[in-house]
Amino acid sequence: GLKDWWNKHKDKIIDVVKEMGKAGLQAA
User: Fold this and answer.
1) Distance (Å, rounded) from C-alpha 25 to C-alpha 28?
2) Which among 6, 14, 11 has a CA at the least distance from the CA of 22?
3) How far apart are CA 12 and CA 4, in angstroms?
4) What is the Cα–Cα distance from 21 to 13, expressed in whole angstroms?
5) What are the Cα distances from residue 3, in Å, to 6, 7, 21, 22?
6) What is the pLDDT of residues 1-28, one digit of tens each?
7) How far apart are CA 6 and CA 14, in angstroms?
8) What is the radius of gyration, based on Cα positions, of the chain?
9) Contacts of 13 by beta carbon, 8 Å cutoff, 6+ apart
10) What's the predicted TM-score (pTM) here?
11) How far is it between the farthest Cα atoms of the chain?
């Protein structure tokens, strides 16, 4: 289910979100 998918991918997703957040802050 979704929870298994999230647990498998969450570390990568969190890294991507952090990178997008940094890029957004720099662009602002």
Assistant:
1) 5
2) 14
3) 14
4) 12
5) 5, 6, 24, 27
6) 999 999 999 999 999 999 999 998 888 7
7) 10
8) 12
9) 6
10) 0.59
11) 37
H or E stretch covering 11: helix 2-27
User: Cα–Cα distance between 11 and 24 in angstroms, integer?
Assistant: 20
Inter-CA distances, 15 with 1, 11, 21, Å: 22, 6, 10
Using the Cα atoms of residue 4, residue 2, residue 9 and residue 24 in order, give the sign of their dihedral: negative
Q: Residue 27, Cα to own-chain centre: how many angstroms?
A: 18
